[in-house]
Amino acid sequence: MIKRLLSYVREYKKESFLTPIAMILEVAMEMIIPMLMASLVNDGINKKNELGEVVGDMNHIIVIGIFMVVAALFGLAGGILGGVFGAKASAGFAKNLRKGMFDRIQTFSFKNIDKFSTAGLVTRLTTDVTNVQNAYQMILRMCMRTPMTFVIAMIMSFTIKPELALIYMVAVVILGGILALIISKAMKAFEQAFPKYDELNASVQENVNAIRVVKAYVREDYEKKKFKTASNNIYKIFSTAEKLTTFNGPAMSITIYTCTMLISWFGAKMIVNSMETELQLGDLTALLQYCMSILFSLMMLSMIFIMLTMSAASVRRINEVLTEEPDITNPENPIMEVKDGSIEFRNVNFRYNKDGKENVLSDINLKIKAGETIGIIGGTGSAKSTLVNLISRLYDVNDGVVLVGGEDVRNYDLEVLRDEVSVVLQKNVLFSGTVMENLRWGVRKKCAQNDKPETPEETAAIEAECKKACRLACADEFIEKMPDKYNTYIEQGGTNVSGGQKQRLCIARALVKKPKILILDDSTSAVDTATDAKIRKAFAEEIPGTTKLIIAQRISSVMNADRIIVMEDGKINGFAAHEELLKNNPIYRDVYESQTGGNGDFDEGGER
């Protein structure tokens, strides 16, 4: 798992290598300074003559002072370089991780995406990656600095006076036990926190997406309470963890003051009793500085463990996304061309859960010729959308086979298949950008010239195709009335256009592809009947070679189709032309009569 994540360091390996090198330089300089200080005191300030009188040595003080300044400057340079390299390496690592996760998500099928909530994926791409980024920076900087500081300071202390250095050893054992207890308790709390972030993000996302419904039903207070509950859950967990980690400070302070007091007491006795023959004043000064270095390195080590504990949960969550295998992939030798728009279902059964017992679609057998217009009607939950999702391989069948152009859809290259099967989904989605930018989503990859800039001629040709698609979808009627026409800005989700306008823009976007198969999944429900009729007429006249599948609740939208599929409970109840279904299919006849009589929809008619 760690090895997989570290593979995303990639082009930032040099910075990742230079960061600990810079930290080694900083630590080395910091550890030299106390020794230089001891020499300055012992051989400079306290230098004695042959009579034992303190006379000092100004030259030695100046030389040692220069060495100390140089060491401090080198240490400062090491610290600055370590910070710069560490920040660049960790930020680059986080950038690559986010890109890797996002790229992986793009390969997921609907079934893969269903395993992760939208809020969960957002948390993984933001909060979890930030935690890993902070942990990586701390590993590069502190995981090298802290152990080295501890080891070098301990060695130096034993070099100066082993008897006094034993005080450090006892203090380290006691403080290490306290910190280990704090960390073990805090780890459990931090591990519980991140799933709660998913709940918080889900609450925010749901509220923002449905803000119009919230305001329409005056449910702001209810949403505030829901958000407060999710926020309080995170607060409680983090406050518990932070309360535990606050014991670091007092434990550290007590240990430092105790060590300082003991070393000062025993060191002073040695100096006084031995007349500085057993221990000199400068050595005592160095020991006190090394005391601070040792104990502060332990405190930093505890903070590193806490940070790593927090990031461990994030690492697991990120790894779940990176290791999720798409259940819909390209075959080894994919077919790169769809011959025509013919469609065939042979003995197809489908269920969303492979281990589930009940099929969503059962015993589906269909043959649709290229260029036919097929209507699909059925009650809510009759699996109309599921049926058409199998054609473009948004899901794979559990049993049987779906053929497009005479070939199993699983044998096609996914991009080739989906370029030839253009789908206007039931939930229409527009992206933030201009009308033209939204329409250009339909431009095929090979036509979009992603690898090089478009020439003015190519841009003009693409825009002409987009405008033609808008005429077919009757979208040009309202686009031409907009202030900036095709350069009019569309808000995220298309909130500044009506439902019918959004549907027509989505249909136009699908037509830009010039697909062999066009699927309209209840995509004219918000369009008035007159415009609906215009769109169907334009399809019949302008794209006669394209196979058209139209899912609708209004029989008027499909009655002129070549044939109509009647769906009921995941099965095909009827498949024939309008006149034949009126004669032989009771469900279709009831719906037709209820709708032409001025009331009722498919669900009401089908229940008669």
Description of the structure:
It contains 21 helices and 12 strands. The chain has helices spanning 2-6, 13-45, 58-106, 110-115, 118-160, 162-209, 211-216, 220-245, 248-274, 281-323, 384-389, 414-420, 435-439, 445-448, 456-472, 476-479, 499-511, 529-542, 578-584, 586-596, 602-606, and strands at residues 343-350, 361-368, 373-378, 399-404, 407-408, 421-424, 433-434, 489-490, 517-521, 547-551, 563-568, 571-576. The strands form 3 sheets. Strands 6-9-10-3-11-12 form a 6-stranded mixed β-sheet. A 4-stranded antiparallel β-sheet has the order 2-1-4-5, with no helix packed on it. The chain has a two-stranded antiparallel sheet with strand order 7-8. Helix 18 links the parallel strand 9 (517-521) and strand 10 (547-551). The relative contact order is 0.08. Mean pLDDT is 80; it is low at 604-608.
Keywords:
single chain, alpha/beta, 608 residues, disordered C terminus, 21 helices, 2 domains, four-stranded antiparallel beta sheet, Rossmann fold, 12 strands, ABC transporter transmembrane region fold, six-stranded mixed beta sheet, elongated
